[in-house]
Each structure stands twice: as structure tokens, then as C-alpha cells.
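Example 3.2
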Amino acid sequence: MPPRFFGLVLPYIGRFYPVGMERAVILFDNDCGFCRWSLSKILAWDRHGRLRPVGLQGPQADDLLKGMDPERKRASWHLVARDGRTYSGGQAVAHLARLLPGGAPIAVLAGAVPRTTDRAYRWVARHRDRLGRALGERACSVDPAKQASASAL
């Protein structure tokens, strides 16, 4: 819910979020080079610092995804919005795009064709090892957590 002043909706300023978490959390497979590389590109796009990356293998992921079946948890990436709602896989694309500068057209497209977005995500997820090999070891050795902490300064 955006802040209000005498009934008028006010825009968010900087990194202030009045409700829920300060930033949305993007949960990713830290053991996957392609996943780390992809996330590094998303975090570079996130100039306003609206995302906080968390590896699925860590205890923070367990806390954020409490109650989620372990198989479902490992099956894809997840976005935990500031209001606490969790979106996964292709379903999360539109929500993620809305958080990124200039991401509105992607959000509209992903929201308009959710089944196609999910199918595209599942295709990428099934081929992530092959895509990672194509990018090469150097590209896939990035550490998004270090990138995120450097951009938060």
C-alpha cells in the first residue's frame, strides 16, 4: 500500500517501503552457474536496489519459504514481494519486471500470456546446464551476493 497524505497517494522515494519488507527477495539456485549469471544481470538492471538476492541453499530461504514443499522450492526461482506474497518460476516474471526500471512492457507481456511465460521459463530451467556451458565458466562464476552488497552501498 503506497503512503498517503490527506487521501492522496504519494510516490515511493528512494528505498523507503512503508509496509512489509524493505526490499523484495529473489531466491535463486546458488549452485547453478547460469542462475548466478542471470541474477547478476537482473541485479545490474536493479538500479534502485529493490531486490535482495538469497540463495535457495541457505537458512534465510528456509525462513522465507516456510511451508513450501522442498521439491517445489528446488524446482525454480522465487520472488518474495514486500507484502510477503511468494511468486515462483514463470509466474514471478511479471512481478519482477514491475520492480525494474523500464520493466513495465515486460510485465505487461508476461502478465498477458502467463502460460507462455511459464513455458518459456520451464524451457530455460530444463536447459540451464547447457546454457551455462555456452556462457562459459568465467561468466558463471559470478557471485550475485557480492554484487548486491556492493550496489547497496
